[in-house]
User: Fold N-acetylglucosamine-6-phosphate deacetylase from Mortierella isabellina.
Amino acid sequence: MAVRPQTDTEGKIVKIINARVLLNHKLTENSYLWFKDSKIIDPQELFFQDHKEPDMVIDAENAIVAPGYLDIQINGAFGIDFADENLPVEDIARNKDVVAKGLLQFGCTSFCPTLVSSAPQVYHKVLPHLRKRLGSVENGAEILGVHIEGPFLNPEKKGAHNEEVLQCAERGMESFDDTYGPALKRDDSIAILTVAPEVKGVLECIPTLAKRGICISMGHSTASVTEAELGVRAGATCITHLFNAMPAFHHRDAGICGLLGSTTLPIPKSQKQHPIPSQSSPSPTNPDPRPFYGLICDGIHVHPNSVRIAYHSHPKGLVLVTDALSSMGLPPGCYHLGDYEVEVNAQNVAYVKGTKTLAGSNITIDRCVQNFRKFTKCSTVEAIEAATLHPAQVLGIEKTKGTLNAGSDADILFLNDDLEIQRVFVRGEEVDLKVN
Assistant:
């Protein structure tokens, strides 16, 4: 990784030149990008209306200039587990900062801290300290809201989740409100909920949860394809780590995986939080009714051939996630995920200790992007958008994240042709990669 001195851009109009800028789904050769403080700006408006020239010019030296990566499923990193309830409150806040700052070195400028299935008291204690927060060099990557994975999951597909805390929603929304506490009604706390639609009471609650502005994702589930489609019709718009913690694809009942081939789902009335159409979409001009789906591209959780099949089936719905554990960024050893002890072996594979149950990954988001392009032979633009535009669309924040359009946050990456991180800007501030 090339490391350069940190550039002070505060309060300055900055023009990036000699770049291959990712705009409108393509790389534009020998192009330029303007930003001031935290926002990408329109150079024509700046020049013709305000008659201003840049205060600073940065030569990208033909680097790929792309939006910062978003990771919408990450359980922890650098020895820190977001679901660790045994820590004092001040340590929870401090640990959040450690992870947020550390992620910048991998080009991750925004993320959703992820909590595995836990007892209600864990959510009540931890959630107030993981609320949305703007990114900066001082704060680290932006917190986009929490992704809560459970506990309304199917015990048959518990994976690395503690079966003792899993529950159904037989009291409807009261079950959800009691479990997560006041955070469920706030607009700055929970971004994504992973649920199993076949669990008693869950399906009926999906419309209310979605109306609260929460992305409903389906996972850790034994749902049939019919039950999965009912989940989408109720308001679910995402699948959690496709192929993992769900039945394997079967030609008679494809389960949740079968949603990638669905042609009978109702066409969405709005583009918001739905994939844009592709060649495989039911309609070539309307939003794709099929959900987004997370994919862990570490070569362990999903075979490269399966990654390729998913990509060709539903390319605009693919969202790269790490599902990273507290062990990410650290050597092999024993770590924690919620109530479980996790063992990472010499091959960097994480199992629930004493079992062969996969317990999340140790991959970083930049490696996911590199692997995805390698596995699928997709274009560089498609690889980058799977970690930028698509996750932003999942959360409905593509006007500020995931693109380099005027008005977007100035979260910017310089990449070489191997998609290695060269420089990182978070809301217009350059990150000193020697420190992070």
Q: What stands out?
A: The radius of gyration is 21 Å. The chain has two domains: 13-67+404-430, 69-395. The longest strand covers residues 13-23. The chain has a mean pLDDT of 93.
